[in-house]
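Data availability (excerpt). The following record was deposited with the supplementary files.
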Amino acid sequence: MAIFRHLRFLFGGLPSDSNAAETTINLAKTVPLCVCGMDLSALSACLAAVVCSSEQPPLRPVGSSAGDGASIIIKSVLERATELLTDRHAAKNYSMSNRALWQASFDAFFVLLTKYCENKYDTIMQSWRMQAPSAGFSGSDAPRAISREMPVELLRASLPHTNEHQRMLLVDFAQRSMPVNRYNAHGGGNGPITSESVPS
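Predicted structure:
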């Protein structure tokens, strides 16, 4: 649980020292291997530890040059929970209280995730509005910048655990942040949310 409580300390940025950076990257690869053996109660505790941490975890997109260890680890938790809850044989082992605990942990994390995305969106839009008149940016530049900064993999991994209200929040966010040409390519914003409708 300590790792999940200290994601910012461990993965806030890649160390400049190559050996330390390699250790950080290896840790981000090792933890998901351990997560693969966890049951739903353990996954709930991991996600709760992330939410209860005194420091905001760095929810960067996977592949970010600033470091993506925290997102890789949280993504593994979400995907493991999806695996357990959609496997008919495994799902029979979990009581309503187990499921309720997971859902409560996820709902709290979802608030954290969407707040992060909203703050990132507002920061980029504010910067774009200040620079656009003098820099000659087009109307699609801001959405493109936003889509590059969003933790898309976490949003997608969250989808199986969302309720209708949460999915509508993601639909609204996808409509605001997706580049115009990419958004139109998926037929507009009136259909149900899918992994393709989350900005990438």
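Summary of structural features: The two ends are 30 Å apart (CA to CA).
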